[in-house]
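Summary of Year 1 activities. Much of the first year was spent building the evaluation harness for sequence design. The harness presents a backbone, in tokenized form, and records the residue chosen at every position. We chose the following record to illustrate the format because it has been used consistently in internal testing since the harness was completed.
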């Protein structure tokens, strides 16, 4: 008996508009964090800590969700080129 995982609770596929939107949000959130880090010497330390923590929490939460779909597909089929490609692209964002 061959069983497959139902990954639709994450996204309906790697071409799902919600997945593509979240992948773009991940890229933008990573850019936002890098830009913020470049300003740390000009902000109040406590405010910087608060904002940095919030940005990191948002980034990690989004990253966990977005990268899960390709990771699970690769776990089930290491020859899944589309999932491997997406995993590499997403790793480049963070």
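For this record, the design step produced the sequence shown next.
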């Amino acid at each position: 008996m061959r069983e497959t995982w139902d990954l639709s609770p994450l996204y309906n596929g790697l071409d799902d508009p919600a997945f593509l939107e979240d992948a773009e949000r991940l890229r933008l959130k990573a850019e936002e964090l890098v830009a913020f880090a470049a300003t740390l010497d000009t902000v109040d330390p406590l405010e910087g800590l608060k904002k940095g923590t919030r940005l990191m929490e948002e980034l990690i939460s989004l990253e966990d969700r977005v990268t899960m779909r390709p990771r699970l597909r690769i776990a089930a089929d290491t020859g899944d080129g589309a999932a491997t490609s997406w995993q590499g692209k997403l790793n480049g964002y963070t």
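The mean pLDDT is 92. Quantitative recovery figures across the full test set are reported in Table 2.
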